[in-house]
Design goal:
- The complex is a heterodimer.
- Chain A is mainly alpha-helical.
- Chain A is 74% helix and 2% strand.
- Chain A contains 19 helices and 2 strands.
- Chain A has a two-stranded antiparallel ribbon.
- In chain A, β1 and β2 form a beta hairpin.
- In chain A, α2 runs parallel beside α6.
- The longest helix of chain A is centred in the N-terminal third of the chain and has 30 residues.
- Chain A is globular.
- The relative contact order of chain B is 0.14.
- The chains are: A mainly alpha, B alpha/beta.
- At the A-B interface, α1, α4 and α14 of A face α1, α2, β6 and α3 of B.
Chain lengths: 453, 304
Amino acid sequence: MMGPEFRRYLWLELTPRRIVFMVAILALVFFAAAVSGPSWTPYSAAETIYYLIVVIWGARNAGLSIVNEIRDRTWDLQRLSSIGAAEMALGKLFGSTIYNWFGGAICLAVMLVYGFAHGTPGSTILDFIYYVIVGLVAQAAALLASLVAIRRRSVHSRLDVFLYQLLGVIAAVAVAYVWEAADPESALLLGRKSTDVIPWWGALVSARPFLLLSLAIFAGWILTGCYREMRRELKMENGPLVWVGFLVFSGLYVAGFDAWLPHEAVMANWNVIALRLALASTTFAALTYAMVLLEPKDRVLYRWYAGQIISGRISRAFGRLQAWLIAYGAAVLITIVLIWWLFAKGFGAFYPAIAVAGLGFLTRDVSIFVFFSATRRGDFAAIVSLFALYVLIPAILEGVGLKNMLPFFYPTPSNPVWLGPAVVWVEASIALGLAASRITLGGKRMISGPSRS
Amino acid sequence: MIEVRDLVYEYPAKRALEGISLTVPPQTIVALVGPNGAGKTTLLRCLAALEPPYSGLVTIDGLDTREHPREIHTRLGYLPDFYGLYDELTVRRCLTYAAWSHGIAAAAVDGAITKAAERVGLSDRMESRAGDLSRGLRQRLGIGQAIVHEPKVLLLDEPAAGLDPQARRDLSILLISLRDAGMTLVVSSHILAELEDYCSEMIIIEDGKVVGGRPIKVKDVERPRYLIEIATARADFGDFLKEAGIDVMEVDEHHALITHTRNAAARAKLVRDLVTAGFEVSSFGESSRALEEAYFSQVGKGAA
């Protein structure tokens, strides 16, 4: 923890002048809260300031920790050091936010003292744990967002940094939401129903421990993500196993929620296993979309994959597969199992045809992302294209009375049943071919300086 | 110390390095020169294990950059062309952070930063803020950070850019002292005149390839470069020299750039042979701008 990076931040962030400034400002705020009346107590003031300092400002500092190194041209110096990936990630996470945590610690101390003084030690300690988790998750999510983003570009605007911060704050809001759902007292105060039990994999599990454990596990995954992205920055190979582990975990976690099983399908007497397979497949497809948007579409790497596969070194290529490709593979695998299961259980061709079409749409869409990656603002162009394919064209078709063509543009039953999937796969093949044509190296040679990798 | 075999590096739409092969022996200073955009910086970043090769092999001290990047980082110092310093920190703290981050044991940190500061001539500036230093002193601090862990290999990308003549001279002296201390240096630069002071070999990169296919000896004490000039043009000038067993680098009908032993009697014999063969020798002297001549004789001809 007290690695070189953390110690450097101590020099920069915790200067005597800044410490005195923070203590003085907070003392004034708490004093004002204490004398201002019952509506604004030192506890509520500490709570508000904690969110401002640790969650909002802390997420910004975490998001800036690497962006600043790149901006100040010191990142190469750090990448060439002997600092390990975990030490660097933790040094950045806790070092860049040490001033925020200093202020946050004062707020937490006020909350603890106030809570104990008012005779609620149990909930005070639980709140203390919550506040630490919410701050940590916000900052780690912002750091992870910035680490993913620096693989894509070397220049980061203020808007980019704001987006990393925003992702951190959204993660914190998600934590707060889950905490509320698990806390009967808070839910009551907000006028919402709290959840006592959650049906998961057919069993009724107590909501609070389940949700708290879920939070802890997802916080662990975020930290793992930071560590692995840092490894990549330090030029260490990651291998696919951890991401595969995350996919398996996500698939099992999401597929377990009985409340999310599609009601119509339940009514149609679907086999529960098929429903869970559909949930897992949808999760993997969602992760494929998320990762193909986030990861750089590295055409050099794709050419390298092709070279390795052609020369028979498939395991070597698999070892460096991008996350979206692995998620796509998982989605394909689970969907094939689902289709087989539906046929085996005698559900006919209706649902399998929709599943086949769904896979075709996924293949077409990721191909569109890869195709546009060769252009400036490629992701934006891809998103606009998908908006046209999923929204504009279907709206026009409906308007001119060609509803029977809708299955060619989003997963919906067609007549005859296999016509829709067939057309979708033709679209996917064309998109795939176009993407492949963009991956190959052009004949024109031009040498330029390196973009940041 | 550094081996590069058939190195290919690609950007998404372009190939930046195409089949580069070179060897840098230990304890030498090799210059990397070439036009802007030739691929020098990309090559240095590949050597620093910051960019993985598309294909080919790069080894530093026997370690493959693809397989052992982190081990290589411990043996390497690298100063990019555009580098940054922690402006808010003092020179002492900048060097201390560099020492910590290179894993130098706590007990050895003070000794390491003192030595690095002495080497780069910053001992009297230890308490100055990095942000307050002049460009030349910042350059020294950058090099000080890169050598604090006594790397075996030091890669410098345009280290003399923007320095005044005195600072360039100091830089030359510093680089020679680092080589004498056992380091292997690869220096990318545009300023050929300074390179001649400290480089033993020059590698010209153009369009992502090594021009001529091999390094060029910059300075050979035993066999310096000589420029011969004849008053009357002779088409057979080059052929005559080659038949006489002379190592001809460049030749036209009036001039020849050769390498030749420093031995006075041997040089006198060559002049005598030329005169006997009817060549009107008007000048025979050691070339003072050998590196520049070698560079311009190669660049633009296309790579091997």
